[in-house]
Automatic annotation (TrEMBL):
Signal peptide: none annotated. Homodimer. The lineage of its organism: Bacteria, Bacillati, Actinomycetota, Actinomycetes, Kitasatosporales. InterPro entries: CDP-OH_P_trans, CDP-OH_PTrfase_TM_dom, CDP_ALCOHOL_P_TRANSF_CS, PIP_synthase_PgsA1. Pathway: Lipid metabolism; Phospholipid metabolism; phosphatidylinositol phosphate biosynthesis. Residues 209-220 have a biased composition (Low complexity). NCBIfam families: PIPSynth (NF045883). This is Phosphatidylinositol phosphate synthase. It is found in: Cell membrane. The keyword Transmembrane helix applies. Mg(2+) 2 binds at D66, D87, D91.
Amino acid sequence: MLNKYARAFFTRVLTPFAAFLLRRGVSPDAVTLVGTVGVMAGALVFFPRGEFFWGTIVITVFVFSDLVDGNMARQAGISSRWGAFLDSTLDRVADGAVFGGFALWYAGTGDNNVLCAVSIFCLASGQVVSYTKARGESIGLPVAVNGLVERAERLVISLVAAGLAGLGAFGVPGIGILLPIALWAVAVGSAVTLGQRVVTVRREAAEADAAARAGGPSDGRSGKPSDGPSGADSGRRGSEAAS
Ligand SMILES: CCCCCCCC/C=C\CCCCCCCC(=O)OC[C@H](COP(=O)(O)O[C@@H]1[C@H](O)[C@H](OP(=O)(O)O)[C@@H](O)[C@H](O)[C@H]1O)OC(=O)CCCCCCC/C=C\CCCCCCCC
Ligand SMILES: Nc1ccn([C@@H]2O[C@H](COP(=O)(O)O)[C@@H](O)[C@H]2O)c(=O)n1
Ligand SMILES: [Mg+2]
Ligand SMILES: [Mg+2]
């Protein structure tokens, strides 16, 4: 939902900054890399110590690099398959650090096994949600569903809650409860999203296999459905590279 409705707004806001970086000779790949390192540092230095406010501030500064890098690539007309791969792969690394940071806090001083497990579930389910789309697209399916809780929602829900919970350290009472609520919400939302995507891929795969059988074997040799796209790139990845 955020990807659909908020992306256009942030694209407008961030375009001048992206243009500025391009004029200074900065490459989109450098922004992707620096942004990921910044998110990792914010999550893994501050969250395990329970410093949620400062961790969230650092992460917020760097996480927007994920919107700037693609913007730069499109402005400069240098969007590439490599860039799409790097962007998506480092998204997984950044997400692992954020939810890993929460898990480390609850495994240590935060001392809550249930919330540690919920954080690990958020980490793993978020990665699998993204994987369903990547794998579905890699076997030539459109995966025409985003689902309830995509990456932007996972980040916004958990980071807004962590930032606010961090205000507890400055004397705001009763606000720490927001983080557990957010982690449970992301966990449940991710499970629902996983179900939505699996159901969609199952339907699309059945339709594609039926169409392939009606028109002959899809790989032209074995009679088995093909295990991947016929071209070097396919589906959304192809359109991204062309964007
Ligand atoms: C009193 C103060 C209290 C402190 C409160 C702190 C408040 C600030 C807290 C948090 C702000 C968090 C902002 C998080 C923004 C996230 C932006 C972002 O990176 O979104 C990424 C997303 C997806 O990008 P991609 O297309 O590159 O990624 C794809 C995606 O990962 C797919 O995964 P899937 O979705 O399928 O699971 C993969 O499949 C695919 O491979 C991959 O390519 O981008 C968007 O969705 C765009 C929309 C972004 C919307 C951002 C909304 C931000 C909302 C509020 C910001 C509040 C800012 C406050 C600043 C305060 C500063 C102090
Ligand atoms: N280093 C990069 C990063 C991204 N791209 C291109 O942008 C697309 C992602 O756009 P976002 O707005 O979500 O960042 C990605 O698929 C690539 O086409 C790039 O070329 N190089
Ligand atoms: Mg990006
Ligand atoms: Mg990204």
